[in-house]
Write a structure and sequence with these properties.
The structure holds 2 protein chains of 2 kinds.
Chain A lengths: L1 H8 L23 E2 L5 E5 L9 E2 L6 E2 L4 E4 L8 E2 L4 E10 L5 E9 L20 H10 L12 H4 L10 E6 L8 H8 L1 H15 L3 E7 L3 H10 L5 E7 L8 H9 L14 E5 H13 L5 E7 L7 E6 L4 H7 L7 E6 L6 E2 L13 E6 L16 H5 L6 H9 L3 H4 L12 H5 L6 H17 L1
Parallel strand pairs in A: 1-14, 9-10, 9-12, 10-11, 13-17
Antiparallel strand pairs in A: 2-8, 3-5, 4-7, 5-6, 7-8, 13-14, 15-16, 15-17
Helix pairs in contact in A: 2-5, 4-6, 5-8, 11-14
Chain B lengths: L19 H23 L1 H21 L10 H11 L7 H15 L13 H12 L40 H7 L8 H6 L11 H13 L6 H19 L7 H6 L3 H8 L10 H21 L6 H18 L9 H7 L1
Helix pairs in contact in B: 1-2, 1-3, 1-8, 2-3, 2-4, 3-4, 3-5, 4-5, 5-13, 8-11, 9-11, 9-12, 12-13
Chain lengths: ~450, ~350
């Protein structure tokens, strides 16, 4: 602990934030293994931010692994590919990790298939115009794998008046427990670098910075050792602090500049891509493989064998848990994503999606909740908020339904990182209140 | 998994180990050395007075508090202890009890309980006692050789005038220097260690400092407040002393009276202090200035209580004026918007 603090002292970071217990050693040393193909794959048409994809298949269709089964339905949308060979069973509403039912393509997996990917023609990345790269990335269904699942090709076309001059590659992985980005950097560093090379070419720039929290010294070393000599790539160790991996926090740490409120990172010439995203970009141009699987962490003290797995999207939660030895007796909560921003799951039938970087099964001890006490105005939430809001005041307003006044408190700048809820000694669910307030406010404004 | 129960909760799914209850009880814990010292210096009288104020607070909280089990959070306990610690050792117990009742009843519960009050309940209780019983609260018994003897008139019956004249009274260092016929400067070391006259818990600056630093390290006390108060008192009293307007040296100012207890334990009450760091500095510096002004020019020897209560009233305005600058905006631009 003391050495970590000393290590942290000289490292760049952002102001405020929190230090939740990392719990990464449960899985950080476990190499990723491939999960067996399940009997059934469920692929929701909406696995990304933006409009849901349009299904291109109908029940009864035979499909191979890697086939396009749904196409982007607009600019901010994404393609969906079959993650296993088999037969389309139906297109119906199915439990979605976001908590509702969403149209999904059900595929009965062919147990006799070799599950080889159908060959796909992809142009050589170095021989096509830069604009075509982002089109190929779009067709491969690439979305940001850091958690938000924003279609990557949109980011690669920044506004004309806001040229990007530096690519930030996000290897922070600041959420506790998660080690999927860590394993990606250790196991596939050449893919991460090749992806960076392709993204740089798509943007027409030459400089990239890889930001990695200092709790992953092995990843920092590997990324440094494997970085190509002909590119201007810096590997920047960063302080271990949540939410270091949030776009704005990463940019602040690396460049010292704040992205103006309400603006995109391109407003100050930066663009952020997750390491796992760049690795999957590399794969598109190497083998033609679209985004159909990723490394995800299965961790927490509620699962018997935590580990890192390469999981085809659409595999049901129950199958993944079963492959990890099942739940322990005191398992209490299952979360998609990290413990700070992830979503609780209510069904073992929900499929894992492109943005699912981890599945946490928390034991009763790990997710204890205590009674909510009155706010004592200790101010700890103000000292934790990475975007310098006043959660104390906003929480008080939200609890009496004064949503419109929260606009003045800059509710729109809140990124729901959860730091305020994490530190609140009275256990007031602040970030939950703010998530609700955002919804209520958009309803009020729509009305 | 036990049965088929699974929790569905909103993020974040993990919480820090910090809790309001833990903060409150660690404040109580940090006060133990100060309480011990008060018993050492003032004998059984100290325990009796503390017992009376704590009883007044707990009984009132239990009877009128609107949350179930609101005694468990420890806040009424703190109010009782702090109120007791700023009373003179010979204080009649029935008055002390009444001070506790008033502090919790009118200082906290009428506002809506924990977290809702504007004024520090302990100080409000003391302000009430100061108004109601001005003689008793400024009667400072002299040191006795017999540790077991009661200091003053603890056992006076309600509504009977305390027989204060019977007791040998000694002056406090502040009163001595300000109003004494023959002004005496109490040695600084006595003030620091606590072997001077005064209220129960206000005499030993050393032990209050230790408790305060312990709380600050644990994150249960906002160090910006005591530091800004003490700095402000030091600077302003130094200025006035240098100008020849004040009989008090800055060091004497820092170590005497209720300043240490006030700065570390009263002003830092989370409920009644600003939430912003900038606000804490404004709050602390203003308290310091008020303390110096009241001590030098006021009609009372001590001004910490009124200084803090006055600034408590201004906390909502301080909070509003010191809202943090949101990420990605310039301060000037933010002000223009507002």
């Amino acid at each position: 602990m003391a050495s970590r603090r000393r290590l942290n002292l000289q490292l760049p970071s952002f102001r405020n934030g929190v230090h939740p217990p990392e719990n990464k050693d449960l899985t950080s040393g476990i190499p990723s293994r491939r999960l067996p193909f399940p009997d059934e794959i469920i692929l929701p048409l909406s696995q990304h931010i933006g409009r849901p994809a349009e299904a291109l298949v109908k029940p009864g269709d035979r499909i191979e692994r890697g086939d396009v089964i749904a196409q982007a339905s607009g600019y901010v949308s994404s393609y969906v590919h079959a993650t296993a060979a088999g037969t389309v069973k139906s297109i119906e509403h199915w439990p979605h990790p976001s908590g509702n039912m969403q149209p999904s393509i059900r595929i009965e997996v062919d147990p006799h298939s070799t599950q080889l990917q159908r060959p796909r023609q992809v142009p050589h990345w170095d021989e096509v115009p830069a604009e075509q790269l982002s089109e190929e990335i779009s067709k491969a269904g690439i979305v940001g794998l850091g958690g938000a699942a924003f279609p990557s090709h949109v980011k690669l076309r920044p506004p004309e008046d806001q040229p990007v001059d530096v690519l930030m590659v996000n290897g922070c992985e600041c959420e506790p427990y998660l080690t999927s980005d860590h394993r990606t950097m250790l196991e596939r560093p050449e893919h991460v670098h090749q992806g960076i090379r392709i993204v740089l070419r798509a943007l027409g720039i030459s400089r990239a910075v890889i930001g990695i929290e200092a709790n992953k010294p092995d990843a920092i070393e590997v990324m440094r050792d494997t970085s190509p000599d002909d590119l201007d790539i810096t590997v920047q160790p960063l302080e271990v602090k949540y939410p270091q991996g949030a776009e704005k926090m990463l940019i602040k740490a690396v460049t010292g500049r704040e992205v103006p409120s309400g603006k995109l990172p391109s407003a100050i010439g930066a663009l952020v891509q997750n390491v796992a995203t760049t690795a999957s970009v590399a794969l598109v141009f190497e083998t033609g493989q679209p985004l159909i699987e990723r490394i995800m962490t299965v961790s927490g003290r509620g699962v018997r064998n935590p580990g890192n797995w390469v999981v085809p999207f659409g595999t049901k939660l129950g199958e993944v848990i079963a492959a990890c030895g099942g739940l322990t007796d005191d398992a209490a909560e299952i979360v998609f994503g990290g413990p700070m921003m992830g979503q609780s799951q209510a069904s073992m039938d929900v499929p894992v999606l492109k943005a699912t970087g981890g599945i946490l099964v928390l034991s009763a001890d790990e997710c204890k909740r205590q009674d909510i006490l009155p706010c004592i105005r200790c101010g700890k939430c103000l000292d934790a908020c990475p975007v310098f809001l006043n959660p104390q005041l906003m929480g008080a307003l939200a609890r009496v339904d004064r949503f419109e006044e929260m606009v003045e408190s800059n509710l729109s700048d809140c990124m729901l990182c959860g730091c305020c809820s994490y530190v609140c000694p009275s256990n007031i669910p602040l970030s939950q209140l703010f998530a609700m307030s955002k919804i209520q406010l958009s309803r009020l404004q729509a009305a | 998994m036990s049965g088929s129960t699974v929790k569905i909760t909103a993020a974040p799914h993990v919480r820090s180990a910090e809790s309001t209850i833990r903060i409150m009880w660690s404040v109580v814990l940090s006060l133990l050395p100060v309480i011990g010292a008060s018993v050492w210096f003032f004998g059984p009288s100290a325990l009796l007075v503390l017992f009376a104020t704590v009883a007044g607070c707990l009984v009132t909280e239990r009877l009128f508090g609107d949350r179930r089990n609101s005694l468990a959070d420890g806040s009424a306990m703190i109010t009782g202890l702090l109120l007791g610690l700023c009373l003179p050792p010979g204080f009649p117990l029935w008055m002390a009890f009444l001070g506790g009742v008033f502090g919790i009843g009118f200082g906290k519960i009428v506002f809506g309980g924990l977290g809702q009050n504007i004024f520090n309940p302990a100080l409000l209780g003391r302000a009430f006692l100061q108004a109601a019983f001005p003689v008793a609260i400024t009667t400072w018994p002299a040191r006795t050789a017999d540790w077991w003897a009661l200091r003053g008139d603890n056992l006076a019956l309600p509504f009977m005038s305390p027989a204060a004249t019977d007791a040998v009274t000694g002056a406090t260092p502040l009163g001595n220097l300000k109003f004494g016929d023959d002004p005496v400067v109490t040695p600084l070391l006595d003030l620091f260690l606590g072997s001077s006259g005064g209220s129960l818990g206000e005499t030993s600056a050393l032990l209050i400092l230790l408790g305060g630093i312990y709380l600050a390290i644990r994150g249960h006390l906002n160090w910006h407040i005591p530091v800004s108060i003490l700095l402000s008192v030091f600077v302003f009293s130094g200025l006035f002393y240098a100008l020849g307007l004040s009989p008090f040296t800055p060091w004497f100012m820092l170590l005497s009276g209720g300043l240490m207890l006030g700065a570390w334990y009263m002003a830092t009450d989370m409920v009644t202090s600003p939430v912003t760091t900038a606000g804490c500095w404004v709050f602390g510096a203003s308290i310091g200035l008020l303390v110096v002004i009241i001590r030098i020019w006021g009609g009372l020897p001590e001004g910490v209580m009124y200084a803090i209560l006055l600034m408590n009233a201004l906390v909502p305005f301080i909070n509003r004026a010191t809202q943090p600058r949101k990420f990605g905006s310039k301060k000037a631009a933010a002000e223009k918007e507002a």
